[in-house]
Amino acid sequence: MRLKFTFPTTFRHYGRVDCIGWMSPDDLYSIGEDHIIYKYNGAQNELSKIGELGQHLYALDMHWLPRCITSLGSSGIVHGVNSGSGGKQTIGSDLFLLATNDGKFFFVNKTGRMEKAVEAHQGAIICVRWSSDGSQIATGGEDGQVRIWTRSGILRSNLVQSGTSVFCLRWSPDNSSILYCAGKHLVIKPLLSNSKQNTWKAHEQVVLKCYCNSVNNLIISGSEDCRYKIWDALGRLLYTSQAYEYPITSLAWAPDGRDFAVGSYNTIRLCDSAGWCHSVARFNDGSIFGVSWSSDSTQLACGCGTGRIGIGHIIERGMNWRHFEFVLTDSKMITVNNYETELSDRIELRDRLVKMSVGFGFLIVLTTNQGLIYNCKQFGHPALFDLRDIFMNLIVQSEKYFLLSDGMNVSVYSYEGRFVSTLKLISPRPNSIHLNTISMSYDMIAVRDSTDTKSVMFFDINGKPMVDGKLTSHKHEISHLALDQTSSTNERKLAFLDKFQDLFVMCIHTSGQHQQSNYQKLRKLCTNVSSFRWNEKNGMLACIADGKLTIWLYPNVVFIDPSLLNKTVYRIESNDFGKSPSIVNFLGCQITIRKSTGALIQCAIPIYYELCLDLLAANRGDEALQLCQYISDDSIYALIAVSSLYNRDLDSAENAFAQLSNTEMILFLQHLRSVTSKDEYEAELVLLTGVNVQQAEEYYFRGNKPLHAIMLHINEHNWNRAIDLTQRYPQYLDVVVGYRQRYLNEYGNGRKETISKYLQAMRTVDIDWNRINAKLCKDLNEDNALRIIN
């Protein structure tokens, strides 16, 4: 992958260019030392002079107002364009901030007219930035101050008084803090005065540039020591480049977080988010003082010391799916290589390519005006859908549908090009939707809530909320989530990483009147995880933790029998993975891993695991057991045992547990066959397979066994639900209150009751354990009746 640069002959300044920025993917603005404001339209190759600064003014930085949503009638200098829906308007991309050498910053509209000037600093303003929601402005100057302003230019606070000039600053992704450089150090300064700032020495020489990205939450910095470095949000070093010949004078993340650009003397480097370099472009135009990515992450503009403006298009970006390779050979051409037939084909596009994705047998191509859907079996006749005036920069595919997003809005399409739905998100924020915060299966969409990053919302394909729309149980911020692709709707699983790199898996149930508690359906799988991925063909889950590759052959085991978890795990240890590897693809038994150097490594798990999962998915457990006869591996017996149990193939499950010498499970399965009540049988089987506790409750009530349902919640410590059931069955109130008091005495260190319902019940109920035990013996009948919940 590389950047193909062109330098329009008419588009240049006299003197160096520090300020450059995209209003839209086609319109580029620049300001140089000649004081002229130029607008260049790349689609029509038109250059316009729209304004000129005074001879005493020199532009040092500019930043376009981000696209975001605001209410109609909001006050301030911000202008909006009415969207005509929902009483809201879309603002942004029609106004930019301009920092100058005389201590002022200006509001400038897209026609070049200066609408307002604000006296901000003593001396030059070196950097200025809108917050991502457009509600605040941050400025940094050579006086060492960082100041926060309202969007209309009213001073809100003097955030920082530094002893050195502030050469660069950026807002954090959630707009709660400011990242800025101070000498050799980087500082993350929270806006709240009672929060602690994070300061660390970043380079051996003065830090000139820094940049943080909202998608991957990573920080890059460049310095006079001729190095660039990558940091996480806590200031931990992830990557250090070699020392180049010249200082780093500019850098910028691509909006999608996949790549970043680093400018130096006569060079621009295109780098992967892991730090390694894709390509180097060399010019004879002096230092690169300004770089800016277009909103679709496909174009990079650079301002040079000679006054020339370069526009680079990303080409030679490749994608692989099975035996196909897709390479963007030009901005309007894709080369398709079929390694199975050893044939090549070309797809010529009418407009410039913005984004492409391949998976599940389909190639999705987005251009500036339309979307094209190619079937990988036949590339000749794509399905088309219109994208005019819509800038989508994210594609997520599933088996039957795919979704598009511009970072705030989500639209769902079928592979025939038919529009299906739009998700109604609550208060979406700019760039809050990206590859790590949204996932899709053929029947469900999971989205991290932009207003509460600890929560996940679930929607069906038609855009309707599922599971009450939100999961709010996790304690920490969710950084990455993914849905599995193979389970049924009522058994769908979500895997996610939190900010402490702990990997969790959750079983999403959508049947029944009540949803089971988060504690029951959420399990931690692993810690210190750097990357994870579901298998596209079956339910396997792979992750990299502590430099080791771990594959859970059947993650459902964590809900069914956690004691068998380690027996259904396959591990690969290799020194070749290096530092910070990531999983690129997991298809069948093949896993592709990318090293921090950019090199790809192919790993494979034994094929009999895949064959076994295919047989079990087809309810052919007996044939899977025959396969095991030729393999001396307990892990495959454990895989058959838990999978057959989940599929209610009790004969295959019992045979597999017998091979594992698991006497307890064998005895229980034999007991289960002796249960005469169909409802009690279903309830205990539901509990055994780790499905919804509320579903088991319904089976117990249907079988006229209310005490079984009450004892189920008591054993699960669902105290509120247990006492609520006594309103229908008051004869068991003493049972519930008695077990609650025993719980507080034995496990709560004798703490006092705090639940009002129990406090009220304790005034009217006498606890007599002889009477309670008599009720249990009478109504539970057998000792084994509740074996699964004990």
Quick take:
This protein has 790 residues and is α+β, with helices and mostly antiparallel strands. The chain contains 14 helices and 56 strands. WD repeats lie at residues 118-149.
Overall description:
It is built from 14 helices and 56 strands. The protein is of the alpha+beta class and 790 residues long. A hairpin with a 2-residue loop joins strand 34 and strand 35. It is globular, with a radius of gyration of 30 Å.
Sequence of strands across the biggest β-sheet:
1-29-28-27-26-25
Shape by Cα distribution: globular
Alpha-carbon distance between the two ends: 58 Å
**Cα-atom radius of gyration:** 30 Å
Stretches with pLDDT under 50, minimum 5 residues: 69-92, 511-520, 782-790
Helix percentage: 10-25%
Main sheet record: 6 strands, antiparallel
Number of helices: 14
At CATH level 3, the topology of the domain at 2-67 and 93-315 is Methylamine Dehydrogenase, Chain H
CATH architectural category of the domain at 2-67 and 93-315: 7 Propeller
Oligomer: single chain
For CATH, the homologous superfamily of the domain at 2-67 and 93-315 is named as YVTN repeat-like/Quinoprotein amine dehydrogenase
Q: Quote the beta fraction.
A: 35-45%
Average pLDDT taken over every residue: 88
- Top CATH class of the domain at 2-67 and 93-315: Mainly Beta
Structural class: alpha+beta
| Total number of beta strands | 56
Organism: Adineta ricciae (Rotifer)
WD repeats: 118-149
Subcellular location: Cell projection, Cilium
GO cellular component, one term: intraciliary transport particle B
Write the layout of secondary structure elements.
Elements: E1 2-6, E2 17-22, E3 27-32, E4 36-41, E5 46-52, E6 59-64, E7 68-71, E8 80-85, E9 88-91, E10 95-100, E11 104-109, E12 114-119, E13 125-130, E14 136-141, E15 145-150, E16 155-161, E17 169-171, E18 177-182, E19 185-190, E20 198-201, E21 207-212, E22 219-223, E23 228-231, E24 237-240, E25 250-253, E26 259-272, E27 277-293, E28 299-304, E29 309-315, E30 317-321, E31 324-330, E32 333-338, E33 343-348, E34 353-359, E35 362-367, E36 370-375, E37 378-386, E38 394-397, E39 401-405, E40 410-414, E41 419-422, E42 438-440, E43 444-448, E44 456-460, E45 465-471, E46 478-483, E47 492-498, E48 503-508, H1 518-521, E49 522-526, E50 529-534, E51 541-545, E52 548-552, H2 557-560, E53 569-573, E54 582-587, E55 590-594, E56 600-604, H3 607-617, H4 621-628, H5 634-646, H6 650-659, H7 663-674, H8 678-688, H9 693-702, H10 706-715, H11 719-725, H12 733-747, H13 756-762, H14 769-780
Antiparallel strand pairs: 1-29, 2-3, 3-4, 4-5, 6-10, 7-9, 8-9, 10-11, 11-12, 13-14, 14-15, 15-16, 17-18, 18-19, 19-20, 21-22, 22-23, 23-24, 25-26, 26-27, 27-28, 28-29, 30-31, 31-32, 32-33, 34-35, 35-36, 36-37, 38-39, 39-40, 40-41, 42-43, 43-44, 44-45, 46-47, 47-48, 48-49, 50-51, 51-52, 52-53, ...
